Amino acid sequence: MKISLKIFLGYFVLVGLAAWFVLTIFVDEVKPGVRQAMEDTLVDTANVLAELAANDVKNGNIVNGNFAKSLSQYQARAAKADTSNANISGVRKQSADYRVYITNIKGIVLFDSANLGLGQDYSQWNDVYLTLHGKYGVRSSPVVIGDKHSDTIMYVAAAIKDGSKVIGSLTVAKANRTVLPFIERAQNKIIRWGALLFVLSIAIGALFTWRFTRKINSLRDYAINIARGKKATPPTSSNDELSDLAKAMQTMRSELDGKQYVQESVQHLTHELKSPITAIQASLELISPNMEPADQAHFLAQIKTQSGRVQTIIQNMLGLATLEHQQQLQQVTSVNLSALIQTQIKHLSQKTHALQASIDAACSPSLTIQADSFLLGQAIVNLLENALDFSPPNSIINVDVIQSKHHILIQVKDQGAGIPDYALDKVFDKFYSLPRPENSPNAGQKSTGLGLNFVQEVAKLHGGKVSLNNHANRGALAVLSLPASIVTT
Hints:
Distance between the termini: 44 Å
Low-confidence stretches: none
Largest sheet: 5 strands, antiparallel
CATH topology of the largest domain: Beta-Lactamase
CATH class of the largest domain: Alpha Beta
CATH architecture of the largest domain: 2-Layer Sandwich
Structural class: alpha+beta
Helix content: 40-55%
Radius of gyration: 50 Å
Strand content: 15-25%
Number of strands: 14
Oligomer: single chain
CATH superfamily of the largest domain: PAS domain
Order of helices and strands: HHEEEEHEEEHHHEHHEEHEEHEE
Number of helices: 10
């Protein structure tokens, strides 16, 4: 299982459990909370009505007194739809939901607004019994006695007093189902918002997981590129543990590459310097005071040539070493590619003239890219020099720049003999060089073998690649491919 899926599933379970726990508590607390609020209201109502009914109870006129008449008028008003149209949080109230009954000191019902218990003995009901004994009287009973699934009614009583003497009790009853719409509405609202919050939390978790795993994947790709010896830029992120890990990997790579590079460079340099040093040593041994001046001049020229070759190898090696240790471009600017190519052609004008050759370039004058002008210029020069070295006199070197949707191709085509099949897969190896053709000024000589390797490193730094093959019309075709993303608009 991928780490991204593990993180997301862990987050999903955590958020799911938290959401379920919180929603369960909220939903479970809605019903008792609403009923407690209703009970509080019934307590106030019962005490107010007890005071209003006290005089009629004392006078023995509770059935036909002012209290009974007022209560009857309240019920009549509530029964009229045109006058009872209260809209309470989206719930319309259209009926009188209170039942009021009054008992004497013995618990006998003297008055009942619903005419259900008149004359009955309610002295054993908790609301009446507790109130007549000076306590808080309240009960909740089913509408159908003995039926656990029946709707329940809440009864709250208050004492009716004559001075400080309790002379009866007044109970206000209200069915719990009357507040059920409010309970259901609150529960549904909590569930809806809870579901929305849950979905939002999951979305945030998915986004966090995606961002986190993207950083991990970038770090993984960086490690893979390191293992394969490719150039790679360490992933950039905020100052967190992943950023520290990337920096540590970069440091490790630099140290390992440095050690390996030194070993390889010493081996290659020793091998390449062996030939010119041997030639210099042989020339020195052959020179003597009695030698003919012409022979002395020949051997001195040989020493000079080989000394220059040693110097060139060392300089090119140092330049390539600097380039190989770069993981990304340091000096990126806007470069007009056509102008850059023309500049490099001018740099080679003397060599081109000596070979009686010409270089024709075809490039859009408006093509501008983001690149390292110096490095890209050196790479183009190396490709042009390589083409000139293997071209016969009076030949033409063609430079074509082709822009496509995904790439910019810089093609350098010569009219030489082409590349032997055995060398096609070695031309970019460090220090590998082919002897110049017989019809060239430097016939039989080899270069340092670092030029094409330099071009390859420049291409990698620009996110591209280079290839060198034979083309159908005789000669070699070098193609420097750069990503189209470096083109500026």
